[in-house]
Amino acid sequence: MSTAEIHRQITADEIAHTFEEEATPKVDLGIYAFEDWVALAIFWVMALAVFLQFFTRYVLNDSYAWTEEIATYCLIGVVFIGAAMCVRLSRHIQVDLVYRYLPRPAGRALSTVIDLIRIAFFGYATKLVWVYIQIIGDEQMTTINFPKNYVYYAVLLGFVLMFLRSVQAALQHWRQGYSVLERPGAYDGSEI
């Protein structure tokens, strides 16, 4: 048996058809939820504020003080609303090593308890943020005459979304009979 490669001539038409056969992959924006788009919008406002701060400080040599405060408050919004995205996708840090050594029924029970604790935590945090907003009220930002309660409302929105997404995740775990803690491979695509 010969190990020599066999090549055949390819016509220009065959080459042209190979480009036609490759279909452009379709973009699916359906995988993104409300919190993804809100976090993205706030992120771009933050990026523009940081760019404006950099430009005015290093190019114009006269920085705008308000851009730093706006960027800071935008970062707060991105973190809390983006955390809701992580709850929806089960991407928060978790310890799943214990589940490898537990019997399946015990792992299932522990996972359900953790889902319930997570729901209770986000519900309580939502209540605390709401009480905090009521106490602070219309406190103004430092460099611009704008109320801080919009920042706190973004945090409240983040916790409400985390609460709702944790309820949604718990229902999904209950229906499918396992969670990301019990079978992480089912969520990251490594399970066959």
UniProtKB/TrEMBL annotation:
Q: Which residues cross the membrane?
A: 37-58, 70-89, 109-130, 150-167
The record's keywords, sorted A to Z, are: Cell inner membrane, Cell membrane, Membrane, Transmembrane, Transmembrane helix, Transport
Note whether Cell membrane occurs among the keywords.
yes
Domain named Tripartite ATP-independent periplasmic transporters DctQ component is located at 46-175
Q: Where in the cell is it found?
A: Cell inner membrane
Membrane topology (UniProt) = Multi-pass membrane protein
Which domain of life, per UniProt?
Bacteria
Would the keyword Flavoprotein turn up in this protein's UniProt record?
A: no
Q: What does this protein do?
A: Part of the tripartite ATP-independent periplasmic (TRAP) transport system.
Q: Which family does it belong to?
A: Belongs to the TRAP transporter small permease family.
Cross-referenced PANTHER family: 2,3-DIKETO-L-GULONATE TRAP TRANSPORTER SMALL PERMEASE PROTEIN YIAM (PTHR35011), TRAP TRANSPORTER SMALL PERMEASE PROTEIN (PTHR35011:SF11)
Q: How does it assemble?
A: The complex comprises the extracytoplasmic solute receptor protein and the two transmembrane proteins.
* Protein known as: TRAP transporter small permease protein
Q: Which organism is it from?
A: Bradyrhizobium zhanjiangense
